[in-house]
Amino acid sequence: MPEITLHTLKVDRRSLAWWAIGLIFTTVLFLVFYPSIADNAAAYRQAIEGLPDALKAFAGGEGDPVSPGGYMQGQFFASLGAWLFFGFGVARGGRAIAGDEEDGTLELVAAAPVGRARIVVERALALAIELVVVCLVTWLTLVILGPPFELDLPAGDYAAGVVGLGLGAWVFGSLALAVGAATGRPAVAYGIGGAAAALAFLFTVLAPLTDIINDRRELSPGWQSFGTRPIETGFHAGDFALLAIEGIVIIAIGTWLFLRRDIH
């Protein structure tokens, strides 16, 4: 494994473990509530149907909110799960370059016989590996603990949902990394990455409420990530490939900007 990537993973290992534990507990929390909701399906459907359209969109929008896939889509994959994954990506990406620069350690890395482009690429690789870890942990939690709580969806459906969130996090994490590389300011990286993630989330969730947004929903990384309801509809190869490419392009732009500025 590349040296800078390996060093980054070693430094991040404890916080990565805490993130993984947090995701496990959050996932289990949503699993635990499902049996009682399934037992009171009619009342739950009636409650959801009685909500205003805007609130109904945040509760899962289209689909059956009581079916296993519809419940997980509305309550996890298009809700808190997306926020956690996107937040993890932004936190890791924003710190990857700008965090070290603010701490004064980036100069030591840049002074070593490695090119600046390699620094960015290897930090991006570390981000990708950490996203794979949180995706795998979340997927295993769903596959192992879902059936005891009546959420016995196929492992492939769970994988599609988790991979969608992971690739969305890759895009926003790459954006935060690129902004940090371009500015050297982690606050700016967190702010822009977080704002982009929030806008994409809202754009996706609220898209059905207006034709102006709905006609352009495919342009949003949020839609490409979870808007197509992969937990119910399976892998969307085109959308997922587009997310991967978007992240790579953003990293390339961030690398170019990093090469053009002085490191203080």
Question: What's the number of domains?
Answer: 1
Number of DSSP helices? Answer: 13
Which regions have little confidence, pLDDT < 50, spanning 5+ residues?
A: none
How many β-strand runs? 0
Considering DSSP H and I runs of 4 or more, what fraction of the residues is helical?
over 70%
Quote the beta fraction: under 5%
Order of helices and strands: HHHHHHHHHHHHH
What is the mean pLDDT? 88
Distance between the termini: 29 Å
Q: Could you give a short description of this structure?
A:
The chain contains 13 helices and no strands. It is 80% helix and 0% strand.
Write structural notes for this entry:
- It is a single chain.
- By secondary structure, this protein is an all-alpha fold.
- The chain has one domain (3-259).
- The chain contains 13 helices and no strands.
- Helix 1 runs antiparallel to helix 4 (68-96), helix 4 (68-96) packs parallel to helix 8 and helix 9 (186-206) crosses helix 11 (221-227).
- The chain is globular.
- The model has no long low-confidence stretch (mean pLDDT 88).
